[in-house]
Design a protein that fits this description.
The protein is of the alpha+beta class. The chain has helices at residues 42-49, 109-112, 116-126, 141-158, 164-168, 186-193, 217-223, 239-256, 277-312, 405-411, 414-423, 433-438, 447-456, and strands at 5-9, 12-15, 25-27, 55-66, 73-80, 86-87, 99-108, 205-214, 229-236, 272-273, 316-323, 325-334, 337-346, 349-350, 369-372, 380-384, 394-395, 427-429, 461-473. The protein has a single domain, classed as tRNA-splicing ligase RtcB. Helix content is 31%, strand content 26%. Bound molecules: guanosine-5'-monophosphate and manganese (II) ion (2 copies). Guanosine-5'-monophosphate (5GP) is lined by residues 64, 73, 98, 203, 205, 207, 235, 324, 347, 373-376, 380, 397-400, 439, 444, 468, 471, 473.
Length: 474
C-alpha cells in the first residue's frame, strides 16, 4: 500500500485515501514520534486497516504507534456492524484485554522507604511471573475456570480476592457480559488454567511508583491520588489463554473470509463480519479472555494489597482498571446517525469523557482514568478522558517501542542497565536480566513527548506523573 503522508498540523498527520482505502488514516503524532525507520511498516499498516469492510471515520494511530501484527500497536478502528462491518483479531492483539490497574496506597514515599527492600523481596517471592511459572490461584477444574471466563474480576471478588469497591473502579464493573466459553478451545483452556494470577514476561510488570507531579488537583483527588503518594501499577493480560484464542480464530477466519467476499492487502488482517457465525464466535471467545485478564489483575492487585498491609501497615485502593487490547460494540454517532460500531483498540486505551453513563458515579464529573506506563526507568502517567475525542474516546497506552527486542538485546548491557536503574533510584527484581534488557528505557519513545502529543490532539488530559521506585519484571 502506498502511504501518502500529509502534515495537518505540527501534532498530526493524515494518510490520504488511495487504492482500496475506504477512509483516510489519522496519525496523532508529531514528526519526531512517527515510525519512519527504513523498513518499518507501521504507517502502511494504518493504511491497510483503512481497507477493512465497514470502517468509519478513519484508521487512527495514537502517538505511541509502532509495528504490530496486522494492525499497528496504538491503532484504533471502528466498523459499522449493520453495514457489513468486520471484526479482526489482529485489531485486538494476541494479549486479549491486556491492560493496566493502578492502586493508590494510604502511605507516602517517606513513610514507605524503610519498608521498601523487605516489600520488594516479599513481592518478588509471592508474585508469579516469567514464562509459565505458577499462579496465585488454581481453579477447581473446568467448571470453575468457566466461572472466571464468564464473570472475570467479579468472580475473583466473590471468592474473597478483593472488596466489592474494587469492582466499582473496574471497566465494565469487572466483567463483560457476552463471554462464550464454549468458543474457547481445549488448548486455550489448558494453557490458561494454570496461569490465573500471574504477570507473564517481558513488557508486563508490577511496579511501585510515587506521584511526582499533579497537573489537575481536583481530578487527581477524584481518582484518589495526591503528590508524594505511593502507588502500585500492574500491567498484564490474558496470558496463554488469550494468545491461543487469537491464534485459533485468526486461522478460522483466514479459511472462511473469501466466503464473505473479503480480500485484504495483508493476511494478518484476517476478519469476518461481526454479524456472522465466525464473528460471533470470536467475540464470545474474546470476551471470555477479557474476563480472564480482569480476574488476573484482580488477583495480583489483591496479593499486593495483602503484602502492603502486612509489611507496611498500608492500604491499597483501586484507582481504576482498564484494558488496552480489546474490541467493543459501542453505540455512537457517526455522520449524524446513531450506529452500533465494533471499536477495535489495540494498544489504545478507552478514555470516557466526563458525563458518560458508563462511568462510576464518583468519576462522572471528571472522566475515566487512562494509564500510560512509560518504562521501568522513566515516568508513567495518569490522564483523564475529555469531551470531543475524535478517535471514539481512545487514548494512548504507553511510550511505544522504537527498538525491536532483538536490537535492545544487542545494544543494552546488563551492567549498564543496572547502573542506570540504580542511579534513577529504582529497585529491580527481575526473573531474568535478558527479559529486562528487552524493555530497557532506550528501547522506547519518550513518554513525556507521547503524553504531550496525546493532550495536544485532545485524546486526553494530564492528571499526574508517576516515577518508579521498585519494579518486578517477568
Ligand atoms: P504493551 O501493552 O504495548 O506491551 O506495553 C505498554 C507500554 O508499557 C509500553 O509501550 C511501554 O511504554 C510500557 N512499559 C514496558 N515495560 C515497562 C516497565 O517495566 N515499567 C513501566 N512503567 N512501563 C513499561
Ligand atoms: Mn500484554
Ligand atoms: Mn499491554
Amino acid at each position: 500500500m502506498d502511504v501518502r503522508l500529509i502534515e495537518e498540523s505540527p501534532w498530526r498527520f493524515r494518510i490520504e485515501r488511495t487504492g482500496d482505502m475506504r477512509v483516510p488514516g489519522t496519525v496523532f503524532a508529531p514528526r519526531e514520534l512517527l515510525p519512519l525507520d527504513a523498513g518499518d511498516k507501521s504507517l502502511e499498516q494504518v493504511a491497510n486497516v483503512a481497507t477493512l469492510p465497514g470502517i468509519v471515520r478513519a484508521s487512527f494511530a495514537m502517538p505511541d504507534i509502532h509495528w504490530g501484527y496486522g494492525f499497528p500497536i496504538g491503532g484504533v478502528a471502528a466498523t459499522d456492524v449493520d453495514a457489513g462491518g468486520v471484526v479482526s483479531p489482529g485489531g485486538v492483539g494476541f494479549d486479549i484485554s491486556c491492560g493496566v490497574r493502578l492502586l493508590g496506597a494510604t502511605v507516602d514515599r517517606r513513610s514507605l522507604m524503610p519498608h521498601l527492600p523487605e516489600l520488594m523481596d516479599r513481592l518478588d517471592h509471592l508474585i508469579p511471573r516469567g514464562l509459565g511459572r505458577g499462579a496465585l490461584w488454581r481453579p477447581g477444574g473446568r467448571r470453575e475456570l468457566h466461572e472466571v471466563l464468564r464473570h472475570g474480576a467479579r468472580y475473583a471478588v466473590e471468592r474473597g480476592h478483593g472488596v466489592p469497591r474494587d469492582l466499582q473502579r473496574c471497566e465494565d464493573y469487572g466483567a463483560v457480559d457476552d463471554a462464550d466459553p464454549t468458543q474457547v478451545s481445549e488448548r486455550a483452556l489448558e494453557r490458561g488454567g494454570a496461569q490465573v494470577g500471574s504477570v507473564g514476561s517481558a513488557n508486563h510488570f508490577l511496579e511501585i511508583q510515587v506521584v511526582e507531579k499533579v497537573y489537575d488537583e481536583s481530578c487527581a483527588q477524584a481518582f484518589g491520588l495526591h503528590a508524594g503518594q505511593v502507588c502500585v501499577m500492574i500491567h498484564c493480560g490474558s496470558r496463554g489463554l488469550g494468545h491461543q484464542i487469537c491464534s485459533d480464530h485468526v486461522r478460522a477466519m483466514g479459511e472462511v473470509m473469501h466466503r464473505y467476499g473479503i480480500s485484504l492487502p495483508d493476511k494478518q488482517l484476517a476478519c469476518v463480519p461481526v454479524h456472522s457465525h465466525e464473528g460471533r464466535a470470536y467475540l464470545g471467545a474474546m470476551a471470555a479472555a477479557a474476563n480472564y485478564a480482569r480476574a488476573n489483575r484482580q488477583l495480583l492487585g489483591d496479593e499486593a494489597r495483602r503484602v502492603f498491609g502486612e509489611l507496611a501497615g498500608a492500604g491499597l485502593d483501586l484507582v481504576y482498571d482498564v484494558s488496552h487490547n480489546v474490541a467493543k460494540l459501542e453505540t455512537r454517532e457517526v455522520d449524524g446517525a446513531r450506529k452500533v460500531l465494533c471499536v477495535h483498540r489495540k494498544g489504545a486505551t478507552r478514555a470516557l469523557p466526563p458525563g458518560h453513563p458508563d462511568l462510576p458515579p464518583d468519576l462522572v464529573a471528571v472522566g475515566q482514568p487512562v494509564f500510560v506506563p512509560g518504562t521501568m526507568g522513566t515516568a508513567s502517567y495518569v490522564l483523564t478522558g475529555v469531551t470531543g475525542n475524535e478517535a471514539f474516546d481512545s487514548s494512548c497506552h504507553g511510550a511505544g517501542r522504537v527498538w525491536s527486542r532483538h536490537r535492545a538485546l544487542r545494544e543494552v548491557t546488563t551492567g549498564g542497565l543496572r547502573t542506570e536503574l540504580a542511579l534513577a533510584g529504582v529497585a529491580v527484581r527481575p526473573t531474568s536480566w535478558r527479559s529486562v534488557k528487552e524493555e530497557a528505557p532506550e528501547a522506547y519513545k519518550d513518554v513525556d513527548a507521547v503524553v504531550t502529543a496525546t493532550a495536544h490532539n485532545n485524546l486526553g488530559r494530564l492528571v499526574v506523573r508517576l516515577v518508579p521506585i521498585g519494579v518486578l519484571k517477568g
